[in-house]
Amino acid sequence: MPIHQRFNSSAEVMTRANGRIHGIEAIERCLTLGLPTDSLVFFPVDFDALGETIHGPVADYFQGVADAFEIRGSTSGSS
């Protein structure tokens, strides 16, 4: 089960830009490791996010992760 986590320990680092960077890193690492292109990758939030933090920074972060997967075409394994 692939887990990708870098500096997700506070709301301040949960940005769309960081999500995009982390998403691209995860895709590249999965490809390097030879994981199937349809592998499920987990992106943890390593702090107690509540209320507006979930609907703000955390949601923004995961939108960035989604952007990376769209940009990189990870469902087909292409770059």
From TrEMBL:
Look up the domain of life of the source. Bacteria
List the Pfam families hit by this protein, alphabetically.
Rv2525c_GlyHyd-like
- Which ranges carry the Rv2525c-like glycoside hydrolase-like domain? 1-77
What InterPro entries is this protein classified in?
Answer: Rv2525c-like_Glyco_Hydro-like
Q: What is this protein called?
A: Rv2525c-like glycoside hydrolase-like domain-containing protein
Native source species: Goodfellowiella coeruleoviolacea
